[in-house]
Amino acid sequence: MMSDLILFIVYLVALILLALPLGKYMASVFTGEKTWLDFLFRPVEKVIYRLTGVDETKEMTWKEYAKNLLVFNLFGIVMVYLIQVLQEYLPFNPESLSGVSPWHLAFNTAVSFVTNTNWQAYAGENTMSYFTQMTALTVQNFLSAAVGLAVAVAFIRGLTRKTTLHIGNFWVDLVRSVVWVLLPLSIVFTMMLVQQGVLQNLSPYITIDTLEGAKQTLAMGPVASQEAIKMLGVNGGGFFNANSAHPFENPTPLSNFLQIVSIFLIPTAVVFVFGHLARDKRQGYAVIGAMLLLFVSMLAVTYASETYGNPMIGNLGVSGSTVMEGKEVRFGIGGTTLFATVTTAASCGAVNAMHDSLTPLGGLIPMLQMMLGEVVVGGVGSGFYGMMIYVLFTVFIVGLMVGRTPEYLGKKIEASEMQMATLAILIPSVAILFGSAIASITEAGVEGIANSGPHGLSEMLYAFASGAANNGSAFGGLTVNTPFYNLMLSVTMLLGRFGVILPVLAIAGSMAQKKISPPGPGTFSTTGILFVGLLSGVVLIVGALTFLPVLALGPIVEQLLMLQGATF
Q1: CB-based contacts of 392: which residues, under 8 Å, 6+ apart?
Q2: What average pLDDT does range 396-403 have in this prediction?
Q3: Helix, strand, coil: what percent of the chain each, to 5?
Q4: What's the rounded Cα separation, in Å, for the pair 333 and 351?
Q5: pLDDT in tens, 523-553
């Protein structure tokens, strides 16, 4: 237990030490200030603008920004779909895999990767060619992360600019996100993963003789390059079906630690970018303080539950090591629970264990974090603007309590902003609850369940929470490669992505037009410990009011029944 505690502390320290300078660098990138990499990336950026006809000096209103974003993502869905279904005619397919079918699986996968969800209803090594993995999935890992980062930067501009209709240029923000941030970090991280033993080749699959004399086929491929952006872009789609539990994706405890750090790295840095651009670093510190307070609390509950385990197993006289069921012995309970908590606090979805095998309470925490909108650090950009929705709610509630118009960064929070903020929270929540309800009362939904009782409900609930939160991790035990789940989850992923992005951009456009008033005697401080506590409380209260009833029917009642010795 002491070694696990040291692991958690080292993780948080390493994360902050890496994110602080990265945040400063990213702030310079998105404001056009000089960086030490200008000589390398500025010419590349100029060439891209010249080839695409983008005028980097022309900025957009929020509606123009949103329109370009939607067109770009629609084009991405079409391209990823076509590459999948035509992969048998495309190069780099040494195993001669046929086109991805049925059509609804290819559509689900296209929507999944474009929305940064990376939900996988297929086994990567048996379904996708190297060409598809590289040009469709890995490329979208970069682009979907860049879209989230672009929206976050546009939202920051909306909060910090005054009396303007413009919040930036979508294409410029997209290019800078990829060229200046995601690509260089991915190259460095790829080399680190290769050093640890992660595969990176274009070789055909290898058939070997096992010690028992049987034949075994080992899948090969360009794994490290996809793994790097999978984590840094908080994407989550595994090259292999076993994801980050596979030794070719995650071979050592050090690679496991590096992957967990990389998931939170850019989302944490984005909060520091906010502090720099707001010209008040304390604003960023307060937001990240609330995020980490919630994260540590969630981690503590998950770890305690998994350490305690299932008393029914203890009553059988089996050793305590049985709490490792569903976990990798290479990483232990500490490495597993840290990974599970991080990947669902962020919108990553990579897993190094079966969440279906966690205790009911241990499985509740990853599910709850997704239901909260993955604002506990969250995804690249999406975690920040998701938490800022709760910041606006917190400021609004405090304003009502003291009887004055709520303000944030000197700008008044009015009805239009609160309407959009409400939509940003309600749309994913309704998608989760409505989708789970339909699945639980229809034959097509119920027949995919592997377990009866409350655990079966948890399997469905987790799937829709993962889709709406654009997470992509699976609870396990649910057959989802069916027309019902492929199409229902596709709609859920689209609502969870663009049902938040569009209200966020609308808020950015509205806030950008407002004047900034200097703070007065009655201005509520949004940089202190009190605000951190209030913000954390609002996040938990909204989540409890929305999801406590359905969680009570699933993991909560399952935990209580487990303690009483009930099985299903």
Answers
A1: 408, 413, 417, 418, 421, 507
A2: 83
A3: 70, 5, 30
A4: 13
A5: 788 898 999 999 999 999 998 889 999 999 9
